[in-house]
């Protein structure tokens, strides 16, 4: 029983290793001794460990205030009820973006390489991402928001920190119709501005997003019809290295209050949007198509794993060149990050060490119950057949013998798009140089064997070995094997492959 339970437990990615709190979580006792205003919120459990009451908004706000001051030198405050960010959790998103930018999979579009420029959609009164990004990494930001409270308090939080204030611009989103009309928008799509009526069960916000359809329809369609998000807010000629967003996750305040274990505040304007995060992020995706040359990376947080799948499908539909996802875990809270780009990925470099190898292997972990060695072998077979190579399966030894000509190999490598978690097809013009251009193909046919071994339930080992040992052949074999690995991981352990980017 015990074993069974242990086996079911999924290994969870932890806090980002560069996160200040990854090795040293906030020390409440120390903070209480240094900051008298925090002291009343700290109490000691039976185990002698200091705690705070996470359901007390004043306690969580004071913790955020002292952490920003103590660890980041930031002077910060928000009024009662506004969304209060947890610093370790928000830092994870910043570090993930740092990883995306430094991976250089997507080449820089900003000629001023030292000045990273980000756009924070919905910066909130707390303005947490620009403050963290500027103080930790020296990035400059535009932070947008629609509410007066957010605009006023984000500006205050910037002004009280002169060390970063030159790096941050707070931009109020114009919620009036004209600002959101693209050339191809029709009158039917018009939004209400200012004080017009809103859906009965909605959130009472003055500028609530409304469609011209009935309220019921709007809920069913789950399409966003609120103030502009990117398109209409980004100015002509502006370019950014990335955008980020912690969207209004919920469709109603009832849904937003389902977690009684914490109190991080959050007004309806901050937490809710018709259609919830799915509709909001879908609009960001639509905007990104129109602004594909203005950003290197588009990113957003996603609160529900179930929404990730349909958002990724939407991204496929609009022809992005890459999608990356990650998981942000803090305590009991789990969120996901999604990032995409329209810029062709840079060429993948194959290290000489790897290129020499003629015996290679990789693990397929986290396979769903219905998938085993047989299904994986069948996928190996179709992977090579699709490109015209010969592939003979041996079901007894769980192996496949492949013979591929130069043309077959080039065909396989032409489909390669680099070290991507979600490499999507795009039209030919956008195609990056693939390793078919960079790795010499052998003059003779290449023969190799792929064998699949069952390790433990849910985990398979895939081995590949070249039948003839020869340096140049080993180079191309490495590329083919890497491509096979990407395809099998995408098919059989999608979530896992797309998660651990830390
Ligand atoms: C969940 S809060 C996030 C606040 C802050 N970024 C954080 O992480 O704590 C979402 C924010 O998006 C803002 N918002 C909603 N619609 C928006 C839009 N169309 N453009 C910009 N901000 C918007 C809300 O006012 C709110 O401040």
Automatic annotation (TrEMBL):
The keyword Methyltransferase applies. It is an enzyme of class 2 (transferase). It comes from the Eukaryota. Pfam families: Methyltransf_10. Coiled coil: none annotated. S-adenosyl-L-methionine binds at residues 90, 122, 145, 246. GO terms for molecular function: methyltransferase activity. GO terms for biological process: rRNA base methylation. Residues 1-19 have a biased composition (Basic residues). Keywords: Methyltransferase, S-adenosyl-L-methionine, Transferase. InterPro entries: METTL16/PsiM, METTL16/RlmF, SAM-dependent_MTases_sf. Residues 1-23 are annotated as: Disordered. GO terms for cellular component: nucleus. Its EC number is 2.1.1.-. Belongs to the methyltransferase superfamily. METTL16/RlmF family. This is U6 small nuclear RNA (adenine-(43)-N(6))-methyltransferase.
């Amino acid at each position: 029983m015990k074993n069974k339970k242990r086996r079911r437990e999924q290994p969870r990615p932890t806090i980002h290793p560069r996160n200040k709190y990854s090795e040293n979580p906030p020390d409440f006792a120390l903070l209480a001794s240094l900051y008298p205003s925090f002291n009343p919120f700290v109490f000691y459990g039976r185990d002698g460990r200091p705690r705070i009451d996470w359901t007390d908004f004043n306690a969580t706000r004071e913790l955020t205030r002292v952490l920003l001051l103590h660890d980041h030198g930031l002077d910060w405050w928000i009024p009662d009820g506004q969304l209060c960010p947890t610093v370790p959790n928000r830092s994870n998103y910043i570090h993930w973006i740092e990883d995306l930018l430094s991976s250089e999979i997507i080449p820089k579009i900003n000629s001023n390489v030292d000045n990273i420029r980000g756009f924070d959609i919905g910066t909130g009164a707390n303005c947490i991402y620009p403050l963290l990004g500027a103080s930790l990494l020296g990035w400059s930001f535009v932070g947008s928001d629609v509410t007066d409270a957010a605009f006023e308090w984000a500006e205050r939080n910037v002004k009280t920190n002169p060390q970063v204030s030159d790096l941050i611009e707070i931009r109020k989103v114009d919620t009036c119709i004209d600002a959101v009309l693209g050339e191809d928008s029709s009158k039917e799509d018009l939004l209400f501005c200012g004080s017009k009526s809103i859906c009965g069960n909605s959130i009472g916000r003055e500028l609530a997003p409304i469609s011209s359809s009935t309220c019921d329809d709007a809920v069913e369609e789950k399409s966003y019809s609120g103030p502009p998000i990117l398109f209409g807010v980004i100015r002509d000629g502006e370019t950014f290295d990335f955008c980020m967003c912690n969207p209004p996750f919920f469709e109603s305040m009832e849904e937003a209050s389902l977690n009684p274990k914490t109190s991080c505040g959050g007004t309806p304007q901050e937490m809710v949007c018709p259609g919830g995060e799915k509709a909001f992020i879908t609009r960001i995706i639509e905007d990104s198509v129109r602004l594909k040359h203005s950003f290197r990376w588009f990113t957003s947080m996603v609160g529900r794993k179930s929404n990730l799948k349909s958002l990724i499908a939407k991204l496929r539909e609009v022809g992005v060149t890459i999608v990356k996802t990650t998981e942000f875990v803090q305590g009991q809270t789990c969120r996901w990050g999604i990032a995409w780009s329209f810029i062709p990925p840079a060429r993948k470099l194959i290290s000489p060490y790897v290129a020499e190898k003629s015996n290679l292997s990789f693990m397929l972990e986290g396979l769903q119950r219905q998938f085993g060695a047989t299904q994986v072998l069948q996928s190996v077979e179709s992977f090579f057949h699709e490109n015209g190579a010969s592939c003979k399966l041996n079901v007894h030894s769980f192996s496949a013998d492949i013979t591929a000509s130069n043309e077959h190999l080039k065909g396989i490598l032409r489909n390669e798009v680099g070290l991507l978690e979600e490499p999507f097809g795009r039209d030919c013009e956008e195609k990056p140089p693939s390793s078919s251009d960079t790795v010499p193909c052998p003059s003779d046919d290449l023969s190799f064997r792929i064998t699949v071994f069952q390790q433990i339930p849910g985990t398979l080992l895939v081995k590949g070995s070249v039948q003839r040992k020869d340096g140049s052949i080993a180079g191309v074999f490495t590329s083919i094997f890497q491509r096979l690995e990407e395809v099998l991981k995408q098919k059989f352990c999608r979530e896992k492959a797309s998660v651990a980017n830390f």
